[in-house]
Amino acid sequence: MKLSNQLGLLQPLPIPHRPWYSISMDFIEGLPNSNKQNVILVIVVRLTKYVHFFSLAHPYTAAKVASLFMQNIFKLHGLPSSIVSDRDIAFTSTFWQELFTRQGIDLAMSIAYHPQTDGQTEVVNRSLEQYLKPLQQTNPTTPFEALYGYPPPRLLEYIPDTTQVEAVDNYLYIRQQALSLLKTNLVAAQERMKLQANKNRIEKEFQVGDWVYLRLQPFKQRSMHQKMGKLAPRFYGPYQILERIGAVAYKLDLPNDALIHPVFHVSCLKAKLG
What we know:
Blueprint: E1 22-28, E2 39-45, E3 51-56, H1 62-77, E4 82-85, H2 89-92, H3 94-101, E5 106-109, H4 119-132, H5 143-148, H6 166-198, E6 211-214, E7 236-245, E8 249-252, E9 263-265, E10 269-271
Parallel strand pairs: 1-4, 4-5
Antiparallel strand pairs: 1-2, 2-3, 6-7, 6-10, 7-8, 8-9
GO molecular function, one term: nucleic acid binding
Domain Integrase catalytic: 15-191
Pfam families: rve, SH3_Tf2-1
């Protein structure tokens, strides 16, 4: 394994405290046309791993994706508190950013050229691509609120001794225990994943002001895989580090005409010697 692929310890995302609190979104592109649709939007509930799939036609717009989201997710589950995604043009558009940030939703995007931030959606994508291989031959209210005039009541967390009906208490207790067990199992799975992944990783840190070379290796799904030319440069730069972002990312002083996000995972960087 190349050293540049080993830099930076794994930093799992926080585990959501309830279903539909946080979701992840991604696209599977480059699929054969089916009724003029050739893109699949994948939405994963980060806590329970519940998944929705929706078909789209390429090119798609942020407005189209948002409409699909509102019609199929919002009306059934409400709005999440956070959305994890890559830096697809639909998610970085002014329309998407303004629409969801005004609703108080945190838009967490992966670092440039480092899609592992949203690893679970990438896993779902690969599973769906594998499954599909043999097959390759805006309303502001929910329907419930529109019908009844008020939003649907939500099931509160279990609080002991708040009901005199034993059956209700048991139901809420069992549901709360199931969620607690799910969170415990997710924490254990994350720790196992970190332990295994970090065996082949090196903790590397840079300082603000350091000069580094940048490796640009665009991530592509297997369905869109293309080989890079043998003579294509492996590293660009050097560029100066302006800021450290979190534990494993850095903001670089890129040229003004650069059309990419300036924050990169440490695995994309190589120290300039001398």
